[in-house]
Amino acid sequence: MKLLIKNGRVIDPANKIDDNLDILIEGGKISKTGKSVDAKAETVIDASGKIVMPGIIDMHVHLREPGREDKETVFSGTMAAAKGGVTSVLCMPNTLPSLDSAEIINTMKAIIKNTANVDVFICGAITIKRQGKELVNIGGLKKDGIIAISDDGASVDSDELMLKALKEAKKEKILVICHSEDKALSGKGLVNRGFTSTRLGLRGISKESEYKRVGRDIKLAEESGAAAHIAHVSCAESVEIIRKAKKKGIKVTAETAPHYFSLSEGDLLDYNTNMKINPPLRAKDDILAIKQGLKDGTIDIIASDHAPHTENEKEIEFEHAEFGTIGLETELAVSITELIGSGILTWQELIRKMSLNPAMVLGIDKGTLGVNKDADIAIVSPDKEWIVDKAGLVSKSKNSAFIGRKLKGAVECTIYRGKVVYKA
Amino acid sequence: MTKKKTAKWVHKDLLGLEYLSKEDIELLLDTAGSFREILDRKIKKVPALRGKTVVNLFYEPSTRTRVSFEVAAKRLSADVINIAVESSSVKKGETLNDTGRNIEALKADIIVVRHNCSGAAAMLGRNVDISVINAGDGWHEHPTQGLLDMFTLRKKLGKLEGLNVSIVGDIAHSRVARSNIWGLTKFGAKVTVCAPKLLIPPEIDKMGVRVTNNIDEALAEADAINVLRMQFERDDMKAFPTQLEYFKNFGITEDRLKKAKKDIIVMHPGPINRGVEISSQVADGANSVILEQVTNGIAVRMAVLFWVSQARDKDKKDEITH
Amino acid sequence: MSIKQVFTREEIERAITRISHEIIENNKGVKDLVIVGIRTRGYVLAERIAKVIDNLYGTKLDVGGLDITFYRDDLSLVAEQPVIHNTEIDFDIENKNIVLVDDVLYTGRTIRCALDALIDFGRPRTIQLAVLVDRGHRELPIRADYVGKNLPTSQKELVQVKFQETDNEDSVAIEETGNDKEKDSKMGS
Q: Phi first, then psi: what are they for B300, rounded to 5°?
């Protein structure tokens, strides 16, 4: 079965390509790339005027299965991924139970095998039940198939235990993803601490609770020599700490989510619980710092931190509502809208941060359009404008912070391992 | 007779003074003036809201505000239903939105809601078509208290512009403070907040107020002082010194007032803790307007009920003509 | 749209003087007499009537202003936002003879509201009604005791009374609106 994509503007950072080319796909792999590829294919897609890029690799996704299938499942979450041009996701371990044992990892692998619409990679927990007390069998779980570890949603508070985890991870050559939050400082906070928390009469979450823990995690990463990745960077201070660490040569990478460079605490004035996110939406200055961090390479990756919650958990009093926004279906468009138009990133840079970089950080052979690679491809109308409509969301939960927003850039078609899994 | 430019009232809900324009607030205060006159009549009642139903939905115990709204609604000839919900049962019980939709299905016209969560009134307002009046949400706003404080000040001093008003007490957890600040600053009053450092919320100066931790400084230039109720029973107060110590450092006493302007107006949203934030002599003294505030509160709430119901009627009319 | 003047300044003055005399005659003097005008122009007219009587009899009649907004039964129908004025009746109306004053008598609904409002202040002995213009088209069983001028109009027309105090001139004019629904947007005075 052959598939031919014709006349698209192919952007492939791995091979430094930005040109109008045709791509031929055979047996789920890219078989040929070039000007006017002449081949007989069962399916031909005309991509004139569109961008053809490697499928997005989103390394921060909560699929909720097993345990909270009412919020999202591997099936529904990967449908949402396909709609957003995402062909690989890394699923976070804060499921019920947590992804902390061989048994549950195997269960998860079976669910993925049977129901996933795109590639799902597994991030195991760092500690048993993500309680920060006892390390999981990192080496064992790696053999079972996890490609990273994280207690996402919680930070390992004990310096000693975190150091032990990092050393073990180095030995096992596995990535450690840090949810950098000092709960002792963020406490029962709900929104960014400052004018907004005062104005809304809500408990604040200080930036300190994030950047102090980012600082610690980097220090421990340096000490251990392990590869550490800082998840969901939200504030200026964290960006600066990471920048300095990178200059110093410490092996650290960082990610931010689209809502941290597109939304600010000011958007919370009507207590929209879809914008109740942890870490919280920050000030305008932080948005600028995040953008600067993306531009100068301090922040390597954009990931959605897709966090589905049911209406019962969101359409309630702000204080009681769950934290998080879904993001798989909007991450590319929000990034195009905020970063391309204003000249923060070039197309090459943006696509690199959403595909090649996460592939490299996770050590998976993806994120490129090279010959013989998996044919994971997104075809995008770069200038098409659309409004995020709740009814149009395919994720099982509809808690998008972007509902009602006008975005630029629309995914027209997603191809996963040579198969069209989404078509607008 | 001078014609004043009046605001066109468009708000279905009253959620907070932050969201109103100066003209909106002026319209409410002026209308409250008309209602205040009615309260001195033999028959203290007008038929303006005849046939309408007002539901007081209270998730926090509050006799004062609830009764004030009830009196106000009855003075306007509305029917009043009181629903008190135990806060403790909220989590397992019906959601606020469901309760609101049920009240709407019962064909009520206005919900007056008091809730311990900031933003609860805003959420309810979004989810029902009938009017919602915020009677206090968490630490966020208590707009009718802010309005009645402004009404009392304007009545006493003739204007709000340029007045020095100091708010003393637990600013961090006070919805009364926030509503007063938004309202007063819109009229060009100079507002000072005074409290121990722990009870000043972060970046409150960005709301356009002066901050001090010294009570004498707060009193020095003040034309009026608004003394907030101190709630030492709350969890957050555990880090805090004793009641006695608070009274020593921040309590409003006759001795302290001697150093202030002679005609300084002393306000308190009630209920008063005598000997905690204010001495009995001051609370009952010549400068105190605490009981007048209570009466004015009815007039202000009548004005709010009247105007939100007007906005609702306007909506209905639009629907009919479409 | 055409505007037709129907009352000049002199005619208005003469009408006010005549109404004042009739009030005295009807009440056999000024004992227990008080005047209450409906805001805005009814109040102006009330003050003028009181002034004429005071000049004639050396009295100082009590004059009150009545705002009837909160008594209206059509608030939900009016297109324009109601303007609220102060009610000022700072005298006792118990057992008094009240002359209620308005500029134009039309459907009678304003007067109905005013009667309700007045009765909330106490129990007067009588309430009499004085208007500068009666334009007909009553919808309620209400009639005026004192009328400056009966003015036959169609419902498409708008009767506009202006006073020096509020509008910088004294005049009564009929305006053709071509809108049959005039009554609905401006309550019949």
A: -65, -40
Q: For chain C, list the contacting chains (3+ Cβ pairs, <8 Å).
A: B
**Within chain B, what is the greatest distance between any pair of CA atoms?**
65
**Å between B8 CA and nearest CA of chain C:** 7
B295 phi/psi in degrees, rounded to 5: -65, -45
Beta carbon pairs, A and B, within 8 Å: 70
ipTM above 0.90, yes or no: yes
Confidence class of residue A195 from pLDDT cuts 50, 70 and 90? very high
Residue with tokens 């009150």: C64
Chain-centre distance of CA A51, in angstroms?
A: 21
B–A touching, 3+ CB–CB pairs within 8 Å: yes
pLDDT tens, C116-157?
999 888 899 999 999 999 999 999 999 999 999 999 999 888
Give the tokens for residue C173. Answer: 């004019």
Which letter does DSSP use for residue A339 in this model? I
Q: Does domain A2-51+374-423 have CATH number 3.90.1170.30?
A: no
**Domain range enclosing B54:** 17-142+295-314
- Cα of A77 vs its chain's centroid, Å: 13
Do residue C79 and residue B317 have CB atoms under 8 angstroms apart? yes
- pTM score, two decimals? 0.90
- Which stretches of chain B are assigned E, i.e. beta strand? 53-58, 79-84, 110-115, 131-137, 164-168, 190-194, 210-212, 224-227, 265-267
Q: What's the burial of C60, exposed, middle or buried (CB within 10 Å: 0-12/13-18/19+)?
A: exposed
Q: How far is the alpha carbon of C120 from chain B, nearest alpha carbon, in Å? A: 5
Query: Given this model, what pLDDT does residue A196 score?
Result: 96
Residue B240 pLDDT level (bands cut at 50, 70, 90): low
The verdict on residue B1 lying in a domain is no
- Residues A125 and A132: beta-carbon distance below 8 Å: no
Structure tokens that stand for A23 in this block: 């791509």
Domain count, chain C: 1
**Low pLDDT (below 70) residues in chain C:** 1, 76-79, 178-189
